[in-house]
Write a structure and sequence with these properties.
Elements: H1 3-18, H2 23-34, H3 41-58, H4 60-75, H5 83-104, H6 116-127, H7 139-150, H8 159-169, H9 174-202, H10 208-235, H11 239-257
Helix pairs in contact: 1-2, 1-3, 1-10, 3-9, 3-10, 4-5, 5-7, 5-9, 6-8, 6-11, 7-8, 8-9, 9-10
Length: 262
Amino acid sequence: MTSAEAVVLGVVQGVTEFLPISSTAHLRVVPALIGWDDPGAAFTAVLQLGSLVAVIGYFLTDLLRMLRAALVAARDPSRPPEPAARQLLYLVVGTIPIGIAGLLFKHAVEGSLRALSVIALAYVERNARRARDFDDIRLRDAGIIGGAQALALVPGVSRSGITLLAAMALGLRREAAARFSFLLSVPAVAAAGIVELPKVLRAHDVSGQVLLIGLVAAAVSSYAAIAWLLRFLRTHTTMPFVVYRIALGVLIFVLLALHRVG
């Protein structure tokens, strides 16, 4: 893999990781269109560490506030926990389903559900109440959104899209849903990237320098995507992403028919 390929793939990863359009699909389609080899699942997972750096950097103040509140609650259990401490608990609870599903079904996930999230997102966008803010999230919400996140193990299901869908269906405003979705990605993305990192480092087709270039590209583009999407969802619906994903699905079918991807 060349440095130019790493930059392009890093930008694709960064832009698509947090938009509800499936980073996995784009990291297969873009190389196919250009005529490059499939970067592989391991390299894709490691690229997500760049996105992890971006989301931690963007929400660093919130994450530190949650950690401080959790430490205070642990030192003095007699005091009611602050909202920030409960929010950290919700992120932990929301991560449990994808952790269990990833261990149980790592080699058995099929792609039969890949179109359902697109249809459901359009339905939720048109019918959900969307009146609740980030501070209104409760333990039950975290469990449901976390369960939805586990469906992202199905190829073609966008992690960001499926968690946005679940959060909006529970009545969260678009921006609040995106915020929780981004924060919920931290443990899952970290685990996937760390597990696959040794495999990529042992590979002979990706040097450490090229990998670093890809990670930097993913981090910068991820940060920009997070900032843009949060601003976009304040005044716009998610319908443009629904339309885009339908168009992407048509493109994938065309590429399959032409034997450009497989």
